[in-house]
Fold these 4 entries.
Entry 1:
Amino acid sequence: MDNSPNNDFLFGALPAIAPLASAYVPMQPGVEPRYEPQSAIGRGTLFPGLDLPFRGMVNKPLPQTPLGELMAIDFVADELSLYLDTHKDDREAFELYQNVLALSKEAHEKYAEQCGPICKKDMLGMKAYRWLNDPWPWEVKERGED
Amino acid sequence: MFVYEKKLQYPVRIKNPNPALAKFIVSQYGGADGELGASMRYLSQRFSMPYPELKGLLTDIGTEELGHLEMVGSILHQLTREMSDNEIKKSGFDTYFVDHTAGVYPTAASGFPWSAAAIGVKGDVIADLNEDMAAEQKARVTYDNILRLSDDPDVNDVIKYLREREIVHYQRFGEGLRLALDKLDEKNVYAMNPSFP
């Protein structure tokens, strides 16, 4: 953890006065600072303020494969969506979410075209029923590999 | 309604099969604080949540937990592939193997099969969100314990990711509780709780 004086992002506000017998967690103040998508998915969070690894053990950014890129951008979309569930009026976060959704759509379509459908709707316009093609996600081999 | 996406949330690529690790990682599939329990807890609690933020949060986190269940299942599948008879005996995986072969079955490492007795659905916004925060911490500790016991970098890569998700979920449930408390009468949140009319 960063213990330097510029670590405000590790903190959030609590109410000045609060009822007894209630648990309080500080609200996350905003979506700054944040990691780039490939690093965010590697760390398991978009937000350095919530990045609290066990014994300082952290993962590397995901490799820049078509699947790695899709996973990274979809991860940021999921992470922002959870943030927006509790911060629905945060305009900055919602604008960011819009940009991320556009990138996610693009990455999804590119991947489906190259490696096969992710959702059944991706098969619209395909020449064969590619849903069944190996490998499935739990197998060691990744789609798009020989 | 749920729609399947044919990809994991985070990649699982275990190079070396190792049934000795599968023997305890199975707890995060079907143990008391595992991903099956997490998804069932949140996706069931959401029906009685009083506010849209909380309906959304429980739906979204519950759905993500289903994705984590798939990831833990993938770890188990990959750790137990191509096992020799000797490896099964030597690794201590024999007690699981005799019942389930290399199938992925929701059970605790201690042998107790998955049970809804380990989750809570109280139908009360304060009680349920406090349970959820505790559940995220319990899952985080289980992942800490797995990181202490496992020396496989491919497994630990995924476990570190899943552990961090528990921390993010804890924060969001805490914020959800905060939103709920703000909407209740601050002078007496218990008397004004909309969960008990």
Entry 2:
Amino acid sequence: MMDSGVLDTPLSRVVAVARAHAASVDSNGRFPAESIAAMREAGLLGALVPVALGGPGQSVAQMAAACYAVGKVCASSAMVLAMHHIQLACLVNHAGTGAWHRMFLGRVVQEGLLLASVTSEAGIGGNMRTSLCALQAGPTADRFLLEKRATAISYGAYADALLVTLRARPDSDASDQVLVVVPTLGADLQCTGGWDAMGMRGTCSEAFHLRSAGGMEQVLPVPFARIAADTMVPVSHLLWASLWAGIAADAIARAWSFLRQALRKAPGGALPPGASRLVGAVERLQMVEARINAALAHYAAAGAEPAASFAAATAINMLKTGASEICLEVVQEALMVCGFAGYSNAGPFSLSRHLRDITSARLMINNDRIRDNTARLLMLQPPILGVG
Amino acid sequence: MKNALRSIVENYGKLSKPMTLITDDADLFAAGMDSLAMVNVMLAIEESFGIEFRDDLLNRASFSSISALEHAVRSSHTIVS
């Protein structure tokens, strides 16, 4: 199902570029430079910046739609787009009125700066709500020094700025964290480990050793605990789920085309084995999409504190764990429909990249870990259920 | 009531400081209580006071300090057995 040259919106141009380079990005495990350049050119990288700061003031729901559309054609490009906007949302919602951050957000709009996340750290066991490294005092009271050994910074080698979590002071507890904006120009960022993964190969999530100096005005004025609960976690799960649904939707589109082609060759003949699986796959993806849309509406309505109630926090966790598994199942069902045409690494019905990319969904923040936390949180307050 | 609440937070709150250094208005999350420790604090309070937290009080603000917990307990329902 190729778009036949109708490239009338900035997003459709981005999608066309991402589609054209998706196979090369995947097979070479390289950064999707063309897609990101197209996003920059389309103004997509500054989309969440409010009108008051010179941006277009688009919504998280609009970014979810963009992640879905790009996710259909190149999941790595969509994941970079999602991760960038997760960081941007944290800045937009929590940077406050400080002149440095306002100027920086203006630069994101003007220059299309690409933002990456540095929450991972060697020795913390994958819990981003704890840090070993701490903000160290600089030569003067208004300066800091930082050093962090990150186990993975997605597209770290290609980012213009990093949002880094650290303990607030050298004597702070592991969970007393702050978030700091570190432009990569002038920082010392040494790659210490490579990225040769099964899927999401273009995210180039390599290990790095980061050292930087900076001014205290680069530190966000609220604790990272709040930034994580109110923005980073909900926006991550909304945008990730959207791009995973995009991957699953393209798998369904391929299975649909496969069946249509088979039937065209023998009109009136029996449906190929597994045809009814397409229906089951569509049923499940529609339920995921309805759930994502409801969560996006809830996020838009909740204002500044989307996770203020525990029920809202557990709901957003369950969106992630549920969507990541169901989208994987949908791709596997599409594979059963397409058979070996789907198992092939090439061709119009290949589902190799879809399956390898969607496999990451359950792992990026391991579902077992999230469900353990969710189960306990669910003891606080019953789940949100009901119709009408 | 504050003493009972302080004792429960001391036992279940996983604070990184001794309870004697925690004032009634000190932020318990900043003192190291995470959301999972908070669940245990809530369950222990419900058991100890024979209450069920009111639905609209089930948010982080209600668990943010000893004073906030006291307010939440006083505003919640007694379980009629």
Entry 3:
Amino acid sequence: MSKVKIGLEIHMPLNTKSKLFCPCKTKSKSPNTATCEVCLGMPGSKPVLNKKALEFAVMLSLALSCKVSKESRFDRKTYFYPDLPKNYQITQYNSPISENGQVLVQGKIIRIRRVQLEEDPGSITYPYHIDISKYSLIDYNRSGVPLCEIVTDPDFSSSKEVKQFLKQIISIAKHLKIYTSDKSFRVDTNVSIGRNPRVEIKNIGSIKDVVSAIECEVFRQQQEIENGQKIKQETRRFSGSSTMLMREKETEEDYGYIIDPDLPTLFINTIQIRKIQKSMPELPDQRMQRMMKQYKLNKSQAQAIVSEKELADFYERVAKDIDSKLAASWISTQLLKVLNYNNLSFSETHLEAQHFTPVLNMIQKGKISDRAAELLLRALVLKPQNSNKLAVKLKLLTLTDQELSKLTKSVLMKHEKQTNQYKLGDSKILAFLIGRVIKSSKGRADAKKVRQEIVKYLA
Amino acid sequence: MTYLITKVKVREGIPLVVKDSICTKGIQTTAGSKILRGFIPTYDATAVKLAKKAGCKVVGKATQDEFGFGTFSTNCAFGVPKNPHDLSRSCGGSSGGVAGYVAASKSKVFGLGESTGGSISCPASFCGVVGLTPTYGLVSRYGLIDYASSLDRIGPITRTVKDAAWLLSKIAHYDRRDSTSIKKSAEDYTIYCGKSIKGLRIGIPKEYMRLASKSVRDEITKATKTLETLGAKIIPISLKYTDAALPAYYIIAFSEASTNLAKFCGMRYGLHEKLSSNFNTYFSKVRSEGFGEEAKRRILLGTFARMAGFQDQYYIKALKIRTLVIKDFQKVFKKVDVIAAPTMPIIAPTFSEIAELTPLDHYKMDVLTVPVSLAGLPHISIPVGSVENMPVGLHLISNYLEEGKIIQVGDAFEQS
């Protein structure tokens, strides 16, 4: 099978207070309330660059080891669409903020081609559903929200690598505090097999969908090739279960880029870059190194924990009150296993340290078996709540001595024949009896203790 | 009167007539285009705000070529202004309504014009008034409906150089809402009036003189003689990129205009049509209906010049020529303080003469005003003589932010 090549364009909304070219707020409640003459494209209005957005883009560039351009420019990308107030988007075409970076993904270098700043268009809603709606409504609150576009080289060879990369990028952006997950990012991806032309899939809204879209598209292209069909260069979209044709290359739009004459050339000097670099918060890699030292973690544990900023924050909160190594081991293995099983990221759960720390406490004190603790975690992840009460409710706590002796007694009474055999000297039958007790305890009894209890009782 | 699209009743204050492409709060602003009929801005352009602060009152919004697209104010959706010196002749464009109104008015009135490729100088020259186009970025463009953002400038159109200097002093302020606004503290330009020009070096570009008609050239030569008698040193100079500037100007201006005009689609302001079919059909319907012929021509040509396959050949090449034109001027300004030349190659033509011209003939009329426009240099047109009883304008050009020098020379001539 020929090699699969995948490239990404990630559009990440930046967490600034105001929009990219006007003072309007980036957060708003009711439609069309965070707007002004600039983001509505009223005649006579002019854009003024938000310095914070620039600073954020430089931070992200530095975190991705990109070379920040001393001179960059904004361009106009012209196309007609109702959500685009000026019918051109202010973006960067020839001279982006930065170029030529790289990110290490599971030991593999993924090259970053460029990082650029651009404005988001407004958003369109179709009352009821796009297929039956007689009209569409436009909300310009999003118009002018700053986006950072990250463009990679086609260096990925699987959806797995893409998934890991996206998680890393999001973790980096969250550590930099330039992105919050309440604003969704959007991804365009290019997929090609061997020497065949590349196919672009536009506007995918989550990591999960990016992964499925790539898998669907690779499968589609492989099928086409196997059937002797030619792959055409085209743009497709992802429906949730398959990719669908949007337009072929012949009808690709020509955006007629020109320099935006309303915005002067952006000069960024070395001193400014250094100043931004110094102000940057701890990045995931630095945090990993620190956590390995501070909490005595091994590399794979630390790596797993910093893969998501919220998870790392959670770990550090948990580690304050409890053995940090025990916490690391449980978070990097069992918790992640449960999350993976449910196809959830940590931030999608509302799990807090107050829910999780008591579980580790129970483990430490031998009040719960590892197996039962994992069952408890499964329930907690889906619905965070008081874990002590939940453990009792689900009958997951290890039996007390009294409960154990009561249970043992009743089991032995049910197995009179085997009990007699044991009494007659058949010591092999003991294992069977232990098994019976553990089974009826639903895993809450410790084998050693059960053995002691049986021996004591039948002595 | 043929000069105003919208008239405003005003009791007191200094009357100010404003080109219709400059936004005025609560007063319809159409930029001379049907597509903006009924558009009432919610804010004043910064220049208008500052002029009002200085005591001016807006008395009307003056007719103009649609979006500034023209040399004779004949591409107007709301009336063609007639030259007050001869009603069969053009006022010039595109700020023709402002210049015509200022020239025709019985009492003193100030005007705010806008120039992209000579739209202040040309009508000032044809109507026999003063038109001052300041350094690019000196007056905020906030609230100006864009033609070509890298070229557009707001400036005064008045009866005297001193009035122009006064109005400029009031409107030339740094404005953080225009990213191309120059960070410079306000200056009183009237102090340059009444100053001697003795020893000032004035360059006469031979290319410019050659491009003017003989009768206009003779008037300009007479004017330079006057400047010489006032003590200026007249130096012959050469600006070799004069010819290349014209196509470069039009390519840049059209490319920018074609994106600036994309926003007009009948959605949030101006002309509306009955909603039907999809947005593409709707946009096309509104734009076909709302734009005039010249606007459509410029949008098409501008879009073509910036398309992927033609960019390098047109838009990018034009940007390179622009740099050469700027260098050309910078070289000359090492030798002279001010450049003096004819503003327009001819006097105001009659409407029947204009009817005979092809679009290309129209564009060629701007050959003397586009190089300074590309370079963003300050320039002023002052009336210096007449041919066939029609005014002739002298163009004075200085280096960046040296408005004082052209005001000094212009005023000295006016007082002579």
Entry 4:
Amino acid sequence: MIEVSNLKKSYGSLVAVDGVSLTINKGEMFGLLGPNGAGKSTTISIMAGLLKPDSGTVKISGDDPISAAAKKRIGLAPQSLAIYERLTAEENLMFFGKLSGLGGPQLSERTTWALELAGLADRRKDIVGTFSGGMKRRLNLVCALVHAPEVVFLDEPTVGVDPQSRNFLFDTVEKLRDEGLTIIYTTHYMEEAERLCDRVAIMDQGKILAQGTVQELIGQFGAESTLIAEFERMPDSFVFAGAEVTGSILTLKSKEPFADMAKLAGAGVAMKSLKMESPNLETVFLNLTGRSLRD
Amino acid sequence: MKSLTLALKDVKLLVRDKSALFWVLVFPLMIAILFGSIFGGSNGASKIDVVLIDQDNSKQSQELVKGLKDSTALNVLAPAQSDALSAAKESVRKGNLSAYILIPKGFGHEVQTFQYAKGPAIQLGIDPSHQAEAGMLQGIATGAASKLMGDAMQMNPQDLAENLSNVQNSTLDPARKKDLMQLMHYASDLQTKRDTDPQASTASFEFEGPQVEQKPISASGSKPASAFEITFPQAIIWGLLGVISSFVVSLVKEREQGTLVRLQSTMSMGEILAGKALACLIACAGVMALLLLIGHFAFNVRLTSPLLLAMAILCGSLCVVGIMMLLSVLGRTEQAVSGSSWGVMITMAMFGGGMIPIFMMPGWMQSASSFSPLKWTVLSIEGAIWRGFTFQEMLVPCAILVAIGAVCFGAGVKVLRSRG
């Protein structure tokens, strides 16, 4: 569906995208995960035909993204709220629908569908300026879907959204994924990527560091789980390879956490509490870059 | 088609922005009405200029002339020596004169024989759009002529007897002659009784008064018929500045709020610029047309040549579109664009006749005003409403406007493209 080959884009001396190559399949939900400034937005801007790369190519079903044919197949929900506050929800949708070539009954039908998807059907005639932040986010999302695109780019769609609206957005995106829409989703929240994406590419400083399914990435780069135990008693002669003891807290990195838990108990460590931290995309990023995603 | 959709959206946003609408429409209208009223609505003069043509030159007509000259509301001018009536009609038509009053030959005789209703009427030549002045002049002329009749009723006994004899010897139809004889006897008796019994003067009678006929003369000349014909084109300048200030930040706003990215995902930059230009063009033409229509229907601003006016509106709008495009690239933020564009616009308005009418400017300023595109906008509109421009005369300001618009638009697009 989407073939990205060796994309490069610089702004003066700043290299924003540095040799990015990706393949995204039809119906797939693909996540671009990375901290702010990693080059995610520039990458999808090039993929959506908004920016010209310095070098490299993008093909959407074989077409250049700046071609009229590809533009019709693309939907874009930018990171900022790209909607008009002095228009109503319905007027916004109809405006963007018309720009994408819709008209007549089809435009009305798609507008109604989008309003229902966003949960804004009862507010269709209201001026957007009167909406809450979450409602605006939902409208921003469905404005990208009104013309029934085959591919949709969602650039950090949950920025500045309250938890309730965030869940609504997640449900909506999952529904779209289940309907077979190809979605490219950028985020710096690893929980979102883990929950929503079939495959994830981890980006930093304009480069793709790794890509694959969440499980593949964790298996490949997540390394070990961490066991953290608070103990009451410990044998005087206690020795356990890799364990670190600080006061009454024992920390152990483990590839087989359940086996090691049993070993600790067998060694006479009387535990008050035990916590196991499994590796996640945060761990993957940390292991790949030596920094946290939120740094 | 996409550009039109974008343009209609922008016009809708403008209409829904109450503060923008104030500057685009309400403020200019306030300026037009305020200054139009201050200048008096009629050339700024407190008296009505009229030329009085006395074709009768009788004792009675001279008395009427004296009565009209005594009116504090009139500024009675002497007619040109040759072909006075044609010259006066032409002056009214050109707007150089508010009206003329013609006292026709035979007026004096009719006054003597009390044949006002049948005799030649006093003619009042006036532009029909000057309803207020027409009513006032009709009243003054009727009043002065009626006074002549009243004076005739209060003649000394010898004059009265002479008038009775005039009526008796006249060629009037017998019924009217009989009425007049009765009326004059009644007046004679009344005068005799009044000498002995002052209360008798309260007695009254009815008689048909002198005729004042209005002759409509449509103005088409080279002077404004009222101060509003100066202030409404001036107001249009402020309306256009309001439109520019709204649209000049439109592109930057689209970029800052992120909608430009969404527009670019469906449209080319060329289509977006075309849409912005079209929206500005629609708004300019709409504001100009609306202000002129309000001026026409509420303040008698003449729309002498609708075709030339449409040409002036179109060319003025095209020029504004170009200026808007150039000003929109003066900065990269809304504040920068807005601030710098207002500086440029105020200077253009100052020299373009937005603050002081150009004909009231000192000489050097009038010369400098030629560099302001707004001056040419005002000139073209005035050309179509009261300057009586021909098509050829209109071509000059219109060509200048289109040329300025094209150069500014090209420069704006070039700067925008160079920024990527």
